[in-house]
Write a structure and sequence with these properties.
With 271 residues, the protein is α+β, with helices and mostly antiparallel strands. It has two domains: 5-158, Sandwich (Jelly Rolls), CATH 2.60.120; 171-270, Homeodomain-like (Arc Repressor Mutant, subunit A), CATH 1.10.10. The chain has eleven helices and nine strands. The chain has helices at 82-91, 115-129, 136-153, 155-158, 171-180, 188-194, 199-210, 214-231, 237-243, 249-260, 264-270, and strands spanning 5-12, 16-23, 26-33, 35-40, 43-47, 51-55, 58-65, 73-80, 108-112. The strands form two sheets. It has a five-stranded antiparallel beta sheet. Strands 2-7-4-5 form a four-stranded antiparallel beta sheet, covered by helices on one side. A hairpin with a 2-residue loop joins strand 4 and strand 5 (43-47). Helix 8 packs across helix 10 and helix 9 (237-243) packs across helix 10 (249-260).
Amino acid sequence: MTNKVSIIRYDSDKSSRNSQITLQQNLFSFLLEGEKGIQYAGTGTIIKPDQFYLLSCGNCLMSEKIAAAGDRYRSMLLFFDNELLADFFSRHQIVAAVSTKKGQNEPFLVFGKDAFLTNFIDSLGLLLDSGKPLSADIQKVKLEELLLYLSARYPETIQQLRTYSYQANNDLLIREIVTANIDNTVTVEQLAFLCHMSVSTFKRRFAGIYNSSPNKWLLEKRMQKAADLLKNGKHQASEINYELGYENLSGFIQSFKKIHGITPKQYQLLN
């Protein structure tokens, strides 16, 4: 049985890219070292060590990046159930506001660290360093402390904490997801995962919308963007391949030539 709230220290010496994660609980993550990438259906962000974030339960892609060999990725994690969040709202008479403004009711919230939060993270570390199992009560107290502080510090943002449920039952969601991932090297399997669909279902629905396969459509869109960037003369292939999510230049050049018939350098000379 999953605990209603859990405090965990996470430490790794390896980078990872686009791991498929199904969060059964909401998650506060305090990044201590390294860089975190988050991608939900249709939206994503990059988290730096001077920030922390709240992720709503659901399917997402996560990437972890360390700066160089010998460095580490370190974070403090606080998982908690929706039941605890609803109870907090009820006891403190905080109503989760509904808004149509862009950027609100997102599946994640990003906060900047300050002196209080730095000390709060240190207190979590001290509790874990004690070597004794943390009781359910002490973990609930720490969650309550954090939520109370955020309520006072970010009163408007705290109202947006709500479960972000993805219902992948219409073509609009597929359009939003693939459009948002034109610049990301996500796989068809990962796109299907974000849509809560099997790969075969995703491909079938995609073909019905775009009359093309996902791989072909994404490649054409990415290489059209690359051509537009090359045409303005301000970008080199070595810059564009990184912007489009390619891990090496040769892979980008091969993809560009497949669509346009010439290399990026030849294209730039002709335009």
